[in-house]
UniProtKB/TrEMBL annotation:
InterPro entries: AlphaKG_dependent_hydroxylases, GBBH-like_N, GBBH-like_N_sf, TauD-like_sf, TauD/TfdA-like, Trimethyllysine_dOase
Occurrences of domain TauD/TfdA-like (ranges): 199-432
Class of enzymatic activity (EC top level): oxidoreductase
Protein name (database record): trimethyllysine dioxygenase
Keywords tagged on the record: Carnitine biosynthesis, Dioxygenase, Iron, Metal-binding, Oxidoreductase
EC number, as in UniProt: 1.14.11.8
Cofactors: Fe(2+); L-ascorbate
A Pfam family matched in the record: TauD
Family: Belongs to the gamma-BBH/TMLD family.
Organism: Cutaneotrichosporon oleaginosum
Amino acid sequence: MILARSIRPVSRVRLLGGAAAVAIRTPATQVSVNPCLVGALRRSIYGNSTQRAQQLEQSPQLTLPQFSQTDSQIIIHWGDGRSSTFDNQFLYDHCRCPSCFHPKTKQRLKTLGPVQPDVKVNSIEAKDGAIHISWGTSPAHQSIFPLAFLQQASYDPPMMNRDRLLDRVPLNLWGANIAELPPTVTYNSVMPDKAGADAEKGVLKWLEKVHDFGFCFVTGVPTSTAATEELIRRMSFIRETHYGGFWDFTADMSKGDLAYSNEGLPAHTDTAYFTDPAGLQIFHCLSHPCPPGTGGETLLVDAFYVADQIAKRDPVAYETLSRLAVPFHASGNEGTMLRPPISQPILRHDHMGRLQQARWNNEDRCVLGEGWTPEDVREWYRAARVFEDICTSKEAEYWVKLTPGTVVVIDNWRVMHGRAAFTGQRRMCGAYVGADDWRSRRRALLQQFGVHGADQWSSGW
């Protein structure tokens, strides 16, 4: 184990250059474990891209289907031997005509009151690439459903993975060798006064790198707080917390947190004590004259890479870190007592079993054990040591010396950061951005540039 006070980078530290980013990944270690369980765990991280590709390739052609009915269901026969069964109430609820779905705000206008399990169909017709339904309601109502929507929305059985609609794509997991070519964009490529009309495309490229790798450098940034704040606002809104909005700080302990000291910090995620931890963390080292100053190198660790390694090496540890909720707190600032009412596991998954968030900050960890069995306590400590051992391995740690003019943007739900102890006057600035905010900005840009559709059928997935 490595204590915070002794954190030091090894010789792999590099000064960040302006190299273009490519996907670099540490080769997988071959370990003999249960292949079925490992496959399930790896799908939780990667989103099962192979299966998704097969589903997209095997999706039925958009030819007019046949259909049949029961009193409460419509069965669509796609012509390739497959069928989709929809409850009438489901289709009536998902009508997106202007009286049911506002064309501008993309919000539902119909309550669930009229959506009854016995809603009747007067007539149904397939034409013009859609299913046209006349409902036996009072007043009468008409719905038109594009065939593509019905294929995507099919639930009995599911016919298409919705990852594409929700823009879930396989991530680039990385280890220490990301240092060879880290994801990077230039300041000039994302600022309107530099890139003109292409600046929004530059922001999309920037956010795509953050999404794919969990972090991205921006080079050529003017070394001022004003320029840094303006850059951050190109991504999204700055999130206000008990540390303020935009930060400009040195190691003066003006806040009750070790980040405001000159001590080393092991890899961690920030604001684990929030119900909704910060989505992005942005740092810019404005100055750290060396000499006389020393140290202060930044540490980055891909927690999803670490999780992937645990899934392959020790599935039981993975399950433990995904099951047992761990509380965190922030109590160092006067007038602040942060502790989420609902604790979460170190590895948090969505309802489909996909890894969505890593929450790890050993310094802010509360008293463990509420609702745990004695065996849970022992197993959690074992699993946590496995997690920490991989986090601190030379294969996982990426050390880099931040220099004035280079900003690093970190996905705080995925990539952990740390710092070597330092001497001298080191001035930093930066901010948090909410997870929903930066992801919304990215999706909106994908829509703007035609990657996602913009009509009423492309929203609300």
